């Protein structure tokens, strides 16, 4: 994985969140370690960073990125839905920051082993965590048409989900759909749009691919568990900071923060989500849809 990953809204996070020198932070999506590196430079030898990621390759990259920090660094190949169990097993009861960047990194999209991209023809996999059993190809080739349409509509928010599902089922009857390229072409035909159509900034298959990735990795259910776990793990004045990239994720975070604020558990730091500056988007196009929400434990 040689593609460089640029952490999104990292400097904004560093400006908004002040950790004690001996603080404990959980980077629940440590990736290549960019966010942890920037925040970790302010931490002393008594501090701890717990980095979690479902991508084993990313954990290895994070180790190289963070090894020079003065604080203790614990890196785990684990889903953030296991945050409570992972911390308890290491004797950590409370933390000062729980950070999650829910986006894919450029290296993952470029890596044919993940099968995430319609920009190149890859095996239709989409498992970020290779310990998972079900691939996107399994869903596409085995799910009943109505259920497949529901999945594309619910997780991809595509109004043409019925038509897309019908085309997929028709095509798989002739031959199983096993590559990202073939699936993308099927969706383009269903929507009667060419892959190179420049009238729309979004590729026709974007929503279908999003839906499948969410389903394969159970992303929304895992996010719900993380959000539910956070209040019980945060110290007083500790922060929950979540960077989301589409309305399904952002809606979950927004509703959770509001509910906890009404209950007197959180103070919402970001009344409106923070978005990247024009300069950051020019430097890193993948940041363009990012939204950062921060809440503070009361």
Distance between the termini: 41 Å
CATH architecture assignment of the largest domain: 3-Layer(aba) Sandwich
> How would you classify the helix and strand content by structural class?
alpha/beta
Count of alpha and pi helical runs: 13
Number of strands: 7
- Average of per-residue pLDDT values: 94
Order of helices and strands: HEHEHEHEHHHHHHHEHEHE
What is the 3D shape?
elongated
CATH superfamily of the largest domain: Vaccinia Virus protein VP39
Please give the domain count.
2
Strand content: 5-15%
CATH topology of the largest domain: Rossmann fold
> Main sheet, how many strands, which sense, barrel?
7 strands, mixed
Enumerate the spans where pLDDT stays under 50 for 5 or more consecutive residues.
none
> What is the C-alpha radius of gyration, as a whole number of Å?
20 Å
Question: What is the CATH class name of the largest domain?
Answer: Alpha Beta
Helix content: 40-55%
Strands ordered across the widest β-sheet: 3-2-1-4-5-7-6
Keyphrases for this structure?
298 residues; alpha/beta; Rossmann fold; DNA polymerase, domain 1; 13 helices; 15% strand
């Amino acid at each position: 994985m040689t593609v460089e990953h640029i952490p999104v809204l990292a400097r904004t996070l560093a400006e908004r969140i002040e950790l004690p020198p001996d603080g404990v932070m959980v980077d629940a999506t440590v990736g290549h370690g960019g966010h942890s590196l920037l925040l970790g430079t302010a931490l002393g030898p008594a501090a701890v960073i717990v980095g979690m990621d479902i991508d084993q390759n990313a954990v290895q990259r994070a180790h190289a990125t963070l090894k020079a920090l003065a604080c203790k660094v614990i890196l785990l190949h684990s889903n953030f839905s296991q945050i409570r169990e992972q911390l308890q097993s290491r004797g950590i009861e409370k933390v000062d920051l729980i950070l999650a960047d829910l986006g894919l990194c450029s290296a993952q999209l470029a890596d044919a082993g993940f099968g995430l991209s319609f920009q190149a023809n890859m095996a239709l996999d989409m498992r970020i965590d290779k310990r998972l059993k079900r691939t996107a190809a399994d869903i596409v080739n085995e799910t009943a048409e109505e259920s497949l349409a529901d999945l594309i509509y619910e997780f991809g928010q595509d109004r043409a989900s019925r038509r897309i599902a019908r085309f997929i089922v028709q095509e798989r009857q002739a031959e199983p759909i096993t590559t990202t390229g073939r699936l993308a072409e099927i969706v383009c035909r269903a929507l009667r749009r060419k892959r190179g159509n420049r009238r729309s900034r979004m590729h026709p298959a974007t929503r279908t691919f999003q839906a499948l990735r969410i389903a394969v990795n159970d992303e929304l259910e895992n996010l719900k568990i993380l959000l539910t776990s956070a209040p019980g793990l945060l110290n007083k004045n500790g922060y929950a900071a979540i960077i989301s990239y589409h309305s399904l994720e952002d809606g979950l975070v927004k509703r959770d923060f509001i509910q906890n604020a009404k209950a007197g558990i959180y103070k919402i730091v970001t009344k409106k989500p923070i978005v990247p500056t024009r300069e950051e988007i020019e430097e890193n196009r993948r940041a363009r849809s990012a939204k950062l929400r921060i809440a503070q434990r009361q």
